[in-house]
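Marked as duplicate of an earlier ticket. Keeping the data here for the record.
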Amino acid sequence: MALTRATKKKKVQVLAKELETSTTAIIGTFAKMTVSQDFELRKVIRGAGGKFRVLKNKLAAKASQGTKVEQALKGLKGVSAAAFTSGDPVELAKVFSKWVGENAEFTFKLGIVDGKLINVEEVKALASMPPKEEIYAKLLFLINAPAQRLVTVLNAAGRDVAVVINQAIIGEKFAGAAAPAAKASESVAEAPAVVESVAAAPVEAVPAVAEAAPEPEKQAEAAATEAPVEGAVAPEAAPASEEPAS
């Protein structure tokens, strides 16, 4: 039954609104599909946060214009159906691939994720990836692991030191060092007293220096006065006065 122009326009508008925010689409084809299979597939895709639609190829190409899934919906041929979502592409690929594995009548054509086209093998590879939550959890673990290991090492070192000291105290390992330590403290206490006694002791007077020797000039004068000059004639003694003759 041919669709009227108004019906086609309405279908394009509805599909365009659904594709407007979609970032992932997986397109497939099927030879036949029962009503129950169609209902089950829609339920599975809805559980992953997506929607499933059997497409009219030309209408899908027109409805997808300006969206992130446009490249995947252009030029489709044959029977086409698409599951699309604005959420986790891995989750969508997982549930879709699982259902296709249980229903051989359905096969994949291609897919698109954030504007990048992917082939059938890449769709299957996408389905084998861990969910987004698990990837985030692993990434967070890798970021936090070095800090956690550092804290563990620091805590272990502190515990080990405490255990060693505790065992040493119990085994009286420090007893032998107590006496020398006491003696050392006594010596330190006595040191100020010694310093005080030395400071209080009277300083002995320095013996007076012998009288300074006469200056060289005075010594020379004295020597000149006392010693006769070489070559000088000694004065004759004055004659004794003669006593008058009696």
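See parent ticket for discussion. Strands lie at 24-30, 51-55, 80-85, 106-113, 116-118.
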